[in-house]
Amino acid sequence: MTGGNQRLDALAATVEQLRSDLAVAQESTDARALIGIATGILVERGHGGPTEAAQHLESLAEAARVPLLELAADVVNAASGDAVTDITPPATANGGPHGAPGPVLRLRAAEAGSLSSDAQSAAEALLDQALAPLGADSLALWAAGQDGALVLAGHAGFPRGEAERWRYVPPGVGTLAQRVLTERKPRWYGSLPAGALGIGQRGGGARAVLPAESAGRILGVLEVCWPHPQPPLTPATTRQLDALADLCAHTLPGADLGGHNTDSHPDDAMNALGDLADGLLDPALVLRPLIDAHDAVSDFRIAHTNAYFTDLAGRPRSAVTGMSLLEAYPLTAREGGLYEHVQRVHATGEPFRSERMALGALVDDVPLSTVASVGMARFGDSVLLTWRVESETVRLAELLQHAQRLGRIGGFEESVVSRQVIWNSQLFSLFGLPPTSSPVPLERLHRHAHPDDSVAIGRFLRTLLHHRHSASTAFRLQRADGVVRHIRIVAEPVTGPAGQLVAVRGAYQDVSSQHWTEVALAATRDRLADSEQQSAERNRLALQLQQAIMPPSPPAVDTAGLRVAVRYRPAEEGHLVGGDWYDAVVLPSNKVMLAVGDVAGHGIKAATGMVVLRNALRGLAATGAGPAQLLGWLNSVAHHLTDQVTATAICGVYDPETRQLRWARAGHPPPVLVRGGEATALPLPGGILLGAMPEAPYEEHLVTLEADDRLLMYTDGLIERRDLSVQQSLEHLLSIAQEPAPELDKYLDRLLTHSRSDTDDDTCLIGVHLR
Amino acid sequence: MSPEPENLNVEVTIHDADTAVVAVGGELDLDTATLLHTHLANQIHHGRLHLVLDLSGLEFMDSSGLNTVIKATRETRQANGNLYLAAATPTVHRLLEITGMSAASPIHSSVDDALKAASSASASAGEAS
Lengths: 771, 129
Description:
The structure holds two protein chains of two kinds. Chain A is an alpha+beta fold. Chain A has four domains: 1-113, no CATH class; 262-394, Beta-Lactamase; 407-514, Beta-Lactamase (2-Layer Sandwich); 549-770, 4-Layer Sandwich (Phosphatase 2c, domain 1), CATH 3.60.40. Chain A is built from 22 helices and 27 strands. A six-stranded antiparallel β-sheet of chain A has the order 3-2-1-6-5-4, sandwiched between helices. In chain A, helix 4 crosses helix 9 (235-249). Chain B is of the alpha/beta class. Chain B has one domain (5-123): 2-Layer Sandwich (Transcription Regulator spoIIAA), CATH 3.30.750.24. Chain B has helices spanning 33-45, 63-78, 90-98, 101-104, 111-128; strands at residues 8-16, 19-28, 50-61, 82-86, 107-108. A five-stranded mixed β-sheet of chain B has the order 1-2-3-4-5, with helices on both faces. In chain B, helix 2 links the parallel strand 3 (50-61) and strand 4 (82-86). In chain B, helix 1 packs parallel to helix 2 (63-78). The longest helix of chain B is centred in the last third of the chain and has 18 residues, at 111-128. Chains A and B meet through loops of A and helix 2, helix 3 and helix 4 of B.
């Protein structure tokens, strides 16, 4: 894309350069040719040989105090009885495919002066002097209205009443003249097509219809009629007719008889248009045509911009004002682009409106496309261009795309309904994957991340999918090619009209370099703030302690048909480390001990309490005692800890032979049993939380697991909410726990994601599945 | 993490020389538990060994709040007094039940009930001494 636009840009510049070079060359060639002809005429009239004639011409010019070129034109003019017919030789003499429109037009301008400036007299004179010799019997000269309407400005040779009937042709009638006005190309009908609309059609015969142009603008149409069908026109006649049509343009309203200098317009008109632009509420530009040596419009100058004008490429208004349109917006030169329409409006006077038009701008060689509604109209020989950027969101989306590439950002969108995942190409390269591979859904993102980051990813997904808030997190991407990148992911939920989650969209950004900068900064900050460092270190120690004991992604226990998976979600970053723990261990007796616990409080005290209780329970369990006894002992341990921690816990011992789970609890919320698609909280055996009393009795319950049963033990971080009672939170947990799920790990992930707790507490979750 | 005492209202009413009613309203959590403990410890310090904790205005309690209650219970009991829980809202009641606290320290349905229990305990303690 970029390459293409650069090429276009460069091409435009090159063409411009060539055009001006050619203009200079052409001008001098034309001038030499004209002087040559004038000299020839003088030779013919007996003013000596070519040299003498040339000298004579020069002295005449000096005596008349007119430029040599002008005098030469006068001589040629004066010599030609039929001015127009005689003008063609220089064009032929120049031999170029386009002839020499420069001097021809100049002469015509002079000629037009000799003709009456009134279109009607011009029409009559033209028919008599120029067209009758070609066999034509009538002509119509139309002036183009602003809206594509045609007004009969002059006519000759038509029967009485015919001209009267065609005095005005409203827009869109579709006469031959109107077609030519729209197409901006002359048309030749050797014999008039059946059903053609327009003046003098009853006569049949042949017809030439030509746009009447002046300084690149079509001011009207010349329609020349022959009474009988005609053979194809010779090139010379074609040129002559073209020239005639342009000559006629000088007699039409809006013609600039002052010549080809477009700047000769009174400043008043410009100022008036500027004032008009300033009064508009949308960005508005006043464009003035830049006329090249061939009287063709080569470009437009941005003569004025109003206060609402904002550059598509973000340049200041003052920088854009005064630039040429193609220079400022080279991409508008695309086929069907803005430039083409401006040119057309300028030429035909037909206003243009588009609800959706792509406007391109280059920002540091990066194409930036904006969709806008565009309107333009011709005033005098200026074009007023206004646009309204379609909507800010569209523009921002484009900007985002732009930013994505520059910021090494990969975008994605994932439908919750269809599970379809869409990645942009940038994202594939970010992941080191070929663009043909399938995108990684968020659900499986943790498989591509460093194991220690799966907790952060889990929390991110929970905020996003469950709470339906925008979320972001950073993780270490482990690419298939072994490269590790630091990635930040930002995503937002897309909700439907009823507020339901429809999709998720967001972006991954490679922040690897940024990451190390941040690490370095953080290290420096730590050194500077000693006390802060100490507290951070304490917290880090607690975290390390906790992680040393409970790795965030622990290996699952799989024994005797019992599959155990656990999840641990630490408290939010920046919060103190909590004291949640879990344990799942196969005892020497081949029984499986399962435990979750929650030490009250946060920070290092809670973490050490957790370590003590967890290890104590492990050690005590080796004795083979039942869970109630174990909790009784653990209570004593907790009570006699110097810091007097309190904790809640559940302890269960599962016997694979009998499939019986004996369990007891110390002030802990009840386990949830999912059986046959129904989730129930197990009835609570009595048991006070650990550490509250020096000695406490604990009741023991027995549950026999059946095939495909699922049992959940959790800490209250999973359910705790301030606005709901424990009972209500528990009911919510039951409702999500009984939704079917194929696989235990995924099931636990879903529970963590969709749990409704609103505290930042850490959370432990043990899931047991009996196959 | 600055404490936000406005989340917890504590009102202390002196009932008699060794009894005070401490009414709590709002949320008793990590941020506010210390505030409650300060009030309770202050009463114990001034010799009021029987403390009635009026829980009727308490909407939320977490483990830190529970710990404060346990700590104060332990402290009053060490001084031969007690902490009486009264008029718990269903949410708090359920929490006290799940944690087994209600088994160790019964929840009285009203402040008056709790005061009666306190005065009879106080009287029997007086007889015993």
